[in-house]
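## retry 2 of 3
previous attempt timed out at serialization; input unchanged, resubmitting
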Amino acid sequence: MGKKKKIENKLSVFTNAILSIYGENPFKPMNYKQICKVLSIRDAAGKDVVYHILIDLHEHGILIEERPYRYVLNPAYLEEYGPKKEYVEGTVDMKSTGKAYVVLDDEGGEDVFIAANNTGHALHGDRVRVAMFPKRKDRKPEGEIVEVLQRKRTDIVGVLHISHGYVFVTPDMESIPLDIFVPKGELHGARNGQKVVVHLTDWPENSGNPFGEIIRVLGNPGDNDVEMESILLAHDYPLEFPKEVEAEAAKIPSRISRKEIQARKDFREVFTITIDPFDAKDFDDAISLRRLENGHWEVGVHIADVSYYVKPGTAIDKEAYSRGTSIYLVDRTIPMLPEKLCNNVCSLRPNEEKLTFSVVFELDDEARVLSHWIGRTVIKSCRRYSYEEVQAMIEGGEGDYKEQILTFHHLATKLRERRMAEGSLNFHSEEVRFILDDHGKPIDTYVRVQNESHELIEDFMLLANRTVAETFGKPGSKWRNCTFVYRVHDEPNPEKLNNFLRLISRLGYTMDISTRSKLVKSYNKLFADVEGKGEKNLVESVAIRTMAKAVYSTENIGHYGLSFDYYTHFTSPIRRYPDLMVHRLIQRYLFDDLASVGKHEYDEYCAHTSEMEKQAEEMERQSVKYKQAEYLQDKIGQVFDGLISGVSKWGLYVELKDSKCEGLVRYDDMPGDYYYLDEENFRVIGQGSGRVLQLGDEVTVVVKNVNLLKRQMDFELIMKGDKPSTKRSESKRNGASPHRQKGGKASTKSKRRTKR
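## retry succeeded, writing output
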């Protein structure tokens, strides 16, 4: 009896060892020979025992026979016999296909792939808990979402559909690739086809779709106001200010007390101007100029003192923090602060006394900084300029205070030359703008190019931001160990940089990346070399994408793109909450002589405002994309010149030269041949003709189709000698399509200007 029990125990241990092998390799079918090899069993008797154990485990349903005599562990037993599960937490980045990636809270960790059938009840942006699958060789980390820790959004914008008795909302956001079912009693007056906001109410365990109720009817799709509001609401950005915020703003006095003026350095009699876009209303920065007795120049950078009016913990402050930034859609601005503050009390309007926070410099004729002062001031701008007015004077035209304007230009040019010599990247940017009719419909487009008048203001703002950061961050500063908010920019992503080098090599350019200084010189030389060429926008936009994203942080790592060891955002508190935080910290440390604030608290502030900036850029991009689609909507059949801006498994992406509209030319709409993707070389090749079409090539296209609601544009390629046609021949439609490699889009349309 004792001997038999001993044998059973031995077999049990043996069986568990076999099951643990399958548990560690749940996706690999194995037969008894492979198991024996792992267990180092070489004798025939031992192999026979293993063989019969596998048969027995299969008969009991613990193993599944995937191929003849090759078994895998039944998933139901994975938790029991597999390795101990590892759990991670992160944020869901969901794709239109339903698959997702979870960006881990641990910044050093690799994103976790989640198959569409393993996303559970998670939506895009949710914080989730993920059970990791055993690591597979040469595969990215993979797992299953097992818990939603924090829902990103419960209100979703979409189009209401009523069909065959079923009611559901199809979300506008492609990153929410499932419909929300709406019980008939929860329509609240909404009609079929309308844009609505649906609030998630339930997600039954056995349902693949969430349930919701209609809480707001926006109107009909295609209406300008409806579409712009949809973009904002899809990102939970409020359309109006709460009543308590407006009431608080209404109580703020417009007049400045004599006591407050006397407590500040007075610049009201100093030559002071603002330079902004012609249609701007919130003037948050001004510059002043005067000649000192020693022959040097005093240049003041004066910033609206929002912190004087907006106190921590007030309703206005809480709402501004929640918004994080102002939003600039194509046809409107949605401000961070109520109108009374951003366009009236705080705005540095001409001929009005205004409270400011200033950095005042003493410069020589070469714009070398001899000294500086930071403090609270009062100013009175004597002239408001548009960029166009200043540019005209720089180019030789006449205008008010031309001598002072040219002095500003001279000093800014010297600052810029020195900054470039020290390794600052010379990114050029182009911004598409629209001319709208009274109903918000685009009737024409133009490209806003940054010129010398923009650079004039930019260089003084960069100097002020840099000086403020150095004052509180440099070694030797008495505030060196105090919590501060920096604008940081990390080094380029090595993988993206390598892809960029491959791209430009195909275009005939080279770069030296052996040291940072050589890389910067190579970047700037490249930008100079592509100036005026067809691939200019492509190279510059992809170059920007190789860079890390600039963010706010209490940990200073410097600003790579500017080549500044210390940098912050101080100059736009009307439209950026981090600038308001910086103003408060300066006041606290310089004048109130208070202890440092809590670092952990400001870490949260930095993370939130960085995320809100990212969302703002996405909203602005979506509004541009919508207006581009709307602009082309009545131009179907018209021919345009463009540049190939991307290649993918679907076809070529082409960006039109004038409007910067980007559309897809599908392979079926490329006449005369069948094309296949050569992803590694960023090109497609004609199977019969051998014709090569690659990134940056100039092409001619005809607008084939525009889907306004999806903001998608389809083009058809026109080869030399072809006539534009949106119909394909039957032989081409029915022909066999060659195999095309999988591959993502290699590059995208020109982005808006880099936010430093």
